[in-house]
Amino acid sequence: MPATVLDALGTVDGTLPAIDDGTLRLSYADVHRSVAAERRWLQSMRVRRCALLAENSARWILSDLALLACEAVNVPLPASFTREQVAHVLDDADIEWVLTDQAEHFMGEHPTFAYVNTSHRTGLALLKREACRSEAGLRASDLGKVTYTSGSTGASKGVCLRRAVIQLVTDSLVAATAGLGVQTHLCLLPLATLLENVAGVYVPLTMGAKVLVPPGHTMGVSYSGLNAPLLLKAIDSASPESMILVPELLRVLVYAARDGWRAPVSLKFIAVGGGGVAPALLQEARRAGLPVFQGYGLSECASVVCLNTPKHDKPDSVGRPLPHARVRIDDNGEICVSGATMAGYLGDSRRQAGEVRTGDLGAIDADGFVYVRGRLKNMFITSMGRNVTPEWVEGELNCEPAIAQAMVSGEARPYPVALIVGSANAREESITQAIGRANARLPDYARIRGWAFFPEAPTLSNGLLTANGRLRRAEIAAKYHQLIDSIYDQSTDTVHAIQ
To answer: How far is CA 333 from each of CA 152, 357, 377, 387, 409, rounded to the nearest angstrom?
Structure first.
C-alpha cells in the first residue's frame, strides 16, 4: 500500500480513471501531473494558510491535494456557512489566501480580499488578504487541515488535524474495506465535510479506484433542501459501488424503495454516519438491496473511529474501532477515543492531542462492538427517575413513513412527548398510529404519551437545524416551550395530539 494518498497518485496505473465530475475526467496520470504543477504554483505564490470554497468537483479535489502536497494548511469552507460564519473562520484562522469558484461574490462579502490570479489547471481564483496576524496559532509544521465544526451552539470551532493523523485514518479505512473490491465511489456529501474528504476521496484514490464527484446541485443534494427524484436519477446514472450517507439520505432511499425504486445492483458498500440510525431502518434498507453499514466518528478524531463491514457486522452497533483507534467508556457512560486525535481547537491551547471525550453516551460489548446511545448533554431524566436519550426514541419514530422529523423531550416530566413533522399527505390519525407502532418497540418509560405538530419544520435556514442535520434542541425548546407545556396539560390515557 502506498505510504500516503499522494504517493498513490504516482504508483497506481496512470491509465486508470481517477476523478470524474461530469465535465472533467482525469486519469491517475492526469491527477499526478496536475497536483505536482499546482503544488509548484502554490509554492511560488508562497501560499501557507488557505481557505478552500468551491462546489464539489475535480478541481476541489486537485486543489485539496495540491495544498496537502505543498504542506500548506487547508481550511475547507462549507457552502452552508453564512457570511458571518465565514468571516469568523477567516479571522479565527487568520486566513491569508482563498481558492474559490465564486470570487466576485466572495470579495463582495469580504472586501479585505483581492484577486491575485487564476489556476490554469483548476480554474479556481486565488484571492489574498494583506493584513494578517502572524500564523494565528497555526504554527505546527505538520498541520494539514483545520476543519470547522457546526455545533448546536456558539461559534464554530476550528479542529486542527495533523497530516499524519489524517493518513492514519485513511490507512485504517483502506485496510477495513480493501476486500470489498470497490472501484467506483460516488460523492454525495459536500467535500468540505471531513467524512467525504477522507473516506470518499483519500481512501478511493489510495486504492486505485475512481471518484465520481458531480456538483451537488446536479444530484439534488444541497444544504437548502433535497430533490429526491434528482438524487435517485443521479445514483442510477452513476451506478456506483460505494457511497457515504447521512441518516436523512438513507431515509430518502428507503422511502423511495418502498415506492418501487430499485437500488443499482452495482452497490457493494454504503457507509452511513453523522447520526444514529434505528436498526429497523437499516434492516429495511438491506432488504431493499442497499448494503448499508453503520459507522461512527467525529472531526476531533479526524473522522471515522468505528465501522461495521460485511465481515464484522452488528447492525445495531456502529462497528468495531478501526485499527488506529482505541475506545473506552468512562464511569459516566461517555465514549472516549484515543489513537488518532486532533492537535487541539484553534486558539485553545488547553485542548491538545490525547484522549478525546466525545460527549456521546455508549457501550462496548464482549466482541468489541461499540454502541452509541445519544448525546450526554441531550439525555433527560423523567420525574419517575428514568434516563432517556431522545435520539433513541426519535430513531424509532423516524422509522415510520408518516413521520418526517421528531424531537422528543421530557426532562423532569413523568413521560416523554414529541414535536412532529409529518410526511407529505400524512394525517393526524396516521401519525398517532405510527407513534403507537414505535412505542411498541420501546420500553414503557420511553414511550411517547402525547405529541404536537411542529408549527414550522426545523431547517438550516430557520436556525433549528445544524448544517449536518442535527436538531438545535435548545433553540427549539426555547421557541416552542409553551407548545411543549400544553402537551402535558392533556389526558395521558392514550397517545394523542393536542388541538
So the answer is: 21, 11, 12, 12, 20
| DSSP string for residues in 139-184 | --TTEEEEEE---SSSS--EEEEEHHHHHHHHHHHHHHHGGG---E
Contact 196, 216 (CB under 8 A): no
Per-residue pLDDT at 381: 87
498 within a domain of the structure (yes/no): no
pLDDT tens, residue by residue, 423-440: 888 899 999 999 999 999
Q: What is the dihedral of CA 407, 157, 111, 60, to 10 degrees?
A: -80
Q: What CATH number should be reported for the domain holding residue 283? A: 3.40.50.12780
Verify that 97 and 152 share a domain, yes or no. Answer: yes
Amino acid in the structure at residue 75: V
Among 375, 402, 422, give the residue marking a domain's end.
375
> CA–CA separation, 34 vs 388, rounded Å?
53
- The answer to whether residues 132 and 185 belong to one domain is no
User: DSSP characters for 38-57?
Assistant: HHHHHHHTT--EEEEE--SS
Q: Among 337, 359, 375, give the residue marking a domain's end.
A: 375
Which strand ranges, in their side-by-side order, compose the sheet holding 334-338? 326-329, 334-338, 356-364, 370-375
Under 8 Å between Cβ of 480 and 487:
no
Q: For residue 483, give every residue at least 6 positions away whose Cβ sits within 8 Å of its Cβ, in sequence order, or none.
A: 419, 452, 455, 498
Is 35 strand, coil or helix?
helix
> Tens of pLDDT along 176-207?
999 999 999 999 999 999 999 999 999 999 99
Q: What are 113-143's pLDDT values in tens digits?
A: 999 999 999 999 999 998 766 555 555 568 9
Whether residues 356 and 401 share a domain: the answer is: no
Q: What total of structural domains would you count in the chain?
A: 3
* Residues making up the chain, counted from first to last: 499
C-alpha cell, 493 = 390515557
Domain carrying residue 182:
164-375
Residues 53 and 95 in one domain: yes
